[in-house]
Amino acid sequence: xxxxxxYCLITYGCQMNESDSEYVAGELAAxxxxxxxxxxxxxxxxxxxxxxxxxxxxxxxxxLWQLAPLKRRRPDLLIGILGCLAQQDGRSLLEQLPHVDLxxxxxxxxxxxxxxxxxxxxxxxxxxxxxxxxxxxxxxxPMRQNRLKAWVTIMHGCNNDCSYCxxxxxxxxxxxxRAEDILTEVGRLAQGGWREVTLxxxxxxxxxxxxxxxxDLLGLVAEIEGIERIRYVTSHPKDLxxxxxxxxxxxxxICENFHLPAQAGSDRVLARMNRGYGRDDYLRLVExxxxxxxxxxxxTDLMVGFPGESDEDFADTLDLVRSIRWDSAFTFMYSTRxxxxxxxxxxxxxxAIKKERLQRLIELQESISTxxxxxxxxxxxxxxxxxxxxxxxxxxxxxTRGDKVVIFAGPNDSIGRTIKLTITRASAHxxxxxxxxxxx
Length: 440
Prior knowledge:
This protein has helices at 15-30, 54-66, 68-73, 84-89, 92-96, 112-122, 167-171, 179-192, 214-222, 242-250, 267-273, 279-292, 311-324, 351-374, and strands spanning 5-11, 33-35, 44-49, 78-83, 102-104, 126-128, 149-153, 155-156, 175-176, 196-200, 208-209, 212-213, 229-233, 257-259, 297-304, 328-333, 380-388, 396-400, 405-408, 418-426, 430-435. The protein is of the alpha/beta class. It folds into 3 domains: 5-128, Rossmann fold (3-Layer(aba) Sandwich); 149-374, tm_1862 like domain (pyruvate-formate lyase- activating enzyme), CATH 3.80.30.20; 380-439, CATH 2.40.50.140. The strands form 6 sheets. A 6-stranded parallel β-sheet has the order 2-1-3-4-5-6, with helices on both faces. The protein has a 5-stranded mixed barrel with strand order 17-18-19-21-20. A 3-stranded parallel β-sheet has the order 7-10-13, with helices on both faces. Helix 9 (214-222) runs parallel beside helix 10 and helix 13 (311-324) runs parallel beside helix 14. It is globular, with a radius of gyration of 23 Å. The chain starts with a strand and ends in a 5-residue tail after the last strand. The mean pLDDT is 95.
């Protein structure tokens, strides 16, 4: 391709979306496209979208409407919607957003280069959302945004039918990548100097490759020289096996950090959510993890205001927070997602009550997170230094094996290295430290 074409790629949503965007960038680079940050410099603007929560969907739609004046000034500009919103709403997006040229679902992203060429040459609008249950095979290497830590997608889709979740409808059913392809990708990362990988899937615990399960895959990845830390998200509590716990406990490269979305503490709500486990099941799972790995950091997702959630149900969630004492939690209010079973039920918890419950939940979890982190003051933590602190170029930041952020003063040559820090103070979300003597 002789002509120079440039694109701008904007991403909303979770790590899966960020990873998808890196693979899209790789596909476009292989076809001669160059990436720019400024929208007004681009020949194509692509918005990679999320619809798990209504707020993410609204942000993406709002951003797309902001591009309409630019499209009027530059009719040749191509605007594309990628990802879950594209899969969910399909052709109707072309009616809703007349300045959009291209709509591409998650499983069709490997075709992005060819689809952009098609739209450029035909000047006809294109919708590509047909391959929702087919394998997702990117031909090019992803263009990674971080030179220290990398996401590696190991599977696509989800076979769980949680009543509130739109993911099976937008990302299709589960499909696991071949272990050989994953190991090859991680091997190239190790050779390129990456120190940490995070294995991604909607439910990594259900990964299958022939007779190999996720514990097998983790063990194989840990054998690759050069990779120092291994993480993974997300784990569905009902599928986390004792064998996986043992693998984490006995494999030094795998970080002792478990993200286990509980969603609620009420058995009645969990059953309506179709989560596949009850409160006691979750408590026993955490007990097994902490028995095998006492230093494990455990985090979660919690939802308030699910249809039919009573004061007693919410009290059960608060009680579970007190019982488990998670290191941290992502908390949010339920929002109706069209196409899910829960969308057929009345959204009967008033917004004011949702907000009040969310605030109470946050306050409780923040107090627990603060107590857990303050207990680390005086301890020595192994920290992978990632770069300058967001708030001050004079400070550095890194993460512990438990994925806790640590801020400290140190030389820039620490970036990319794993060092020991003594924790000097703590807040709910951040640790502060100083270099330990053994680094000197």
